[in-house]
Design brief:
single chain, 211 residues, alpha+beta, Arc Repressor Mutant, subunit A, two-stranded antiparallel ribbon, elongated
Length: 211
């Protein structure tokens, strides 16, 4: 499972022991991501203790990285090593999202229709938004007839629409997984919208989700 090994290293669990345990399972897995190595084998290959390997397996199952099922001997009925199936669908989805995030960073802002207030220049770890400059042309006396007073029209500024609304994102429909990815500052697709780290949209969503 070379593809699974690469995906685990790139977008798998961030806990080191859990990642090594998953790599051990992937090394023994068939094309469907199924394997059943013993706990001792997993602990040895993950360079950890037997108890730590058991805890890591339990955490991976709880987090949805693995699907666990029991195996029994056909004749005696005695329990054998557990069967584990790697969540290949999640790995492939996360790998695709990560690849899309890298592509978005390489492409221009105009090609993907991002808003101007999401542009930021990082300076010394502090994100600064470039100020907008409005150029007002000098008055032209030839354009105004003599004896006529020109009164500029008053304009009423409407409040700025939230970034979530401008992107057509329903904050109430954000899933728990998407919320964790946004709060952790990682790239994630929310309702067909790519939310990149260090952007105005990402900061806005984090502020809203923390309330």
């Amino acid at each position: 499972m070379l593809i699974a090994l690469a995906h685990i290293m790139a977008v798998g669990p961030r806990d080191q022991t859990q990642a090594f345990v998953m790599l051990s399972l992937a090394d023994h897995a068939d094309q469907d991501g199924v394997s059943w190595p013993s706990i001792d084998t997993i602990a040895h290959e993950a360079r950890t203790s037997r108890s730590s390997a058991i805890r890591a397996l339990s955490s991976l199952v709880d987090a949805g990285w693995l699907l666990k099922s029991k195996r029994h001997h056909n004749k005696t009925g005695s329990q054998l090593s557990n069967r584990y199936r790697i969540n290949l669908v999640r790995l492939e989805r996360l790998a695709s999202e990560a690849a899309l995030g890298r592509k978005l960073r390489r492409d221009t802002v105009a090609e993907f229709g991002l808003f101007e207030d999401e542009l930021a220049t990082e300076t010394g770890g502090v994100t600064m938004t470039p100020p907008r400059v409005t150029m007002t042309p000098p008055p032209c006396h030839h354009d105004t007839p003599r004896g006529v007073t020109m009164t500029p029209k008053s304009s009423t500024e409407t409040p700025k629409e939230s970034l979530a609304a401008r992107h057509k994102i329903d904050v109430q429909s954000i899933t728990a997984f998407q919320r964790d990815e946004i709060l952790a500052g990682r790239s994630v697709i929310v309702q067909k919208v790519q939310v990149l780290p260090n952007t105005g949209l990402s900061s806005h969503l984090r502020e809203v989700l923390r309330k």
